Amino acid sequence: MSAALVVEATGPAALLQDLGRPGLAHLGVSPSGAADRAAHRLANRLVGNDEGAATLEVTLGGLVVRATATVFVAVTGAPTTVRVDGAPTASHTTLVLRTGSRLLVEPPPRGLRNHVAVRGGLAVPAVLGSRSRDVLAGLGPAPLAVGDVLPVGTPTAPLPDADRAPAPTPPAGLAVRPGPRRDWFAADAWTTLLGTVWTVTADVDRVAVRLSGPALARTVTAELPSEGLVRGAVQVPASGQPLLFGPDHPVTGGYPVLAVLTSSAADAAAQLRPGDPVRFVG
Fold first, then answer.
1. What's the pLDDT tens digit per position in 208-230?
2. pTM for this prediction
3. Residue 203 sits in a domain of what CATH number?
4. How far apart are CA 197 and CA 109, in angstroms?
5. In this structure, are 190 and 120 located in the same domain?
6. β partners of residue 103
């Protein structure tokens, strides 16, 4: 029998993700892809996959999958406990699932998301060249449901010599660079952005993370024609409270972008949960 993972529980949310579908913004298609790309890439490396192979993106744990044949898997992202047939082990290591074995990803004590890679990748049909689910556009494979059978592909490279990796530690701050509309803001807006300990609100998903703190004042109050957005854009709507855009961001937006997260900071932002403090460095 061909190897597959059978979904027995999904937790709050579980999606198929790869590195997305870049280069289609002119068609109105967001890149999408893994929210924490570093975690996605690491999970694939631990099982000898190409970094672009599809993984399972799990939000706040709860995923249970059963292997129909012996497979190698790895769980990365937020450090958490992983159970194989009930026996606890750590994330960020290569694990073997024998035929009939069950993998459980427990909710992480901190952080939000985990990525589960299986050796050979998940061979579900691609949509516009990607196996990523875009939750804003409703594009790509449907969110996982109990009973789904996910076929496993054929390995194309040997297993790596290293079978474990250090678990990530949260950065002291999210690194930012000036955005294209910094000149639309008051002179102290940049120092306020960097000098404030912001709080993550309840509005957290793959589209954006909304922060709470002092209002960032604008000096240009004219309407801004819609312009392109990117993952990591720090957009400031009329409320003055910043939004951090994630992988499923709209293709365009009509509010000024004060700053842009670096790629590694955008990965770290994907692990923010409501109530977390956030600092920016730049």
1. 999 999 999 999 988 888 899 99
2. 0.96
3. 2.40.100.10
4. 21
5. no
6. 65, 84
